[in-house]
Amino acid sequence: xxxxxxxxxxxxxxxxxxxxxxxxxxxxxxxxxxxxxxxxxxxxxxxxxxxxxxxxxxxxxxxxxxxxxxxxxxxxxxxxxxxxxxxxxxxxxxxxxxxxxxxxxxxxxxxxxxxxxxxxxxxxxxxxxxxxxxxxxxxxxxxxxxxxxxxxxxxxxxxxxxxxxxxxxxxxxxxxxxxxxxxxxxxx
Length: 188
Hints:
This protein has helices at about 85-90, 115-120, 165-175, and strands at about 15, 25, 30-35, 45, 50, 55-60, 65-70, 70-75, 95-100, 105-110, 135-140, 145-150, 155-160. It is mainly beta. The protein has 2 domains: about 10-30 and about 105-180, Probable tRNA modification gtpase trme, domain 1 (Gyrase A, domain 2); about 30-100, 2-Layer Sandwich (Alpha-Beta Plaits), CATH 3.30.70. The strands form 3 sheets. A 6-stranded antiparallel sheet has the order 1-2-10-13-12-11. Strands 6-7-8-3-9 form a 5-stranded antiparallel sheet. The protein has a two-stranded antiparallel sheet with strand order 4-5. The radius of gyration is 17 Å and the shape is globular. About 35% of the residues are buried.
């Protein structure tokens, strides 16, 4: 008999800041598939649109494809909505496909102060002029490596972090959210 799966953040998240300015939630058991393919890629891979610009995301329904490098992408989908992606991608000639689903946890960060929360520990410029929906970046957040993916202008983000560091990062986010209020209109 198979043992039940356990999410790394199940007892810590969801969490909401007083007043609802920040919401943190775990996107448990998200499918994450790493794809590497040499040569000039086409606009599609196994029927999925590929972002061909640096640090961009292409989406098709709930499936998101993040550009991680000139020949590297991360394909993500909520649990149960991957539609056999791993098998489809495995058949692509010249592609190296790796199931990374159990290596990272995904934290959804939303609310009016979400950007300000990330700015407390992230060195990249998250101002809407520079980073918006459809942008992603590999960076450090609170000194640990993460992938940040802005999924909506509200703002709403997904942060992908190694499972072994997920509880620590979630705790850091909760601590860093103390006293944050949404930015005033026109304020950075």
